[in-house]
Specification:
5-stranded mixed β-barrel; 8 strands; Phenylalanyl-tRNA Synthetase, Chain B, domain 1; 3 helices; alpha+beta
Length: 133
Amino acid sequence: MNPSVELGISFHSSGQEIEMLKVTPIDDQRYRIEENPLFTEMVSFGDIIKLEQQGNIYFYKETVRKSRLRRYSWLLSQDVASSEELAAFKNRVADSGGNWETIFGGMLIINVPSHIDFDPDVEINNITVSKDR
């Protein structure tokens, strides 16, 4: 498998918003997304997308194949973001075959298989309620 690289990707034809994203090249135009974009929910971790290079910018053209993972995201308080309960939750996500990312210290994005035996929204709500009392 090819090593991952960071590319400046625009999901808008104007190229005004460019996001640096880690991707794994599959061929000249297809890439596997290795992290979740912040500026769009059209694609997420694990998707195979087609890009067109124009100078130093790669423009999103289409999603070739969607990942089988479902995406969830939450904005968490610092107490919740640094809690042992959240660390255990992230371990559970990884153990289920999923992926998690924390962005800016408090935005948690997870991608999990649809067959998991827990509800991420309920789990995060329980952690938030217990920590934000």
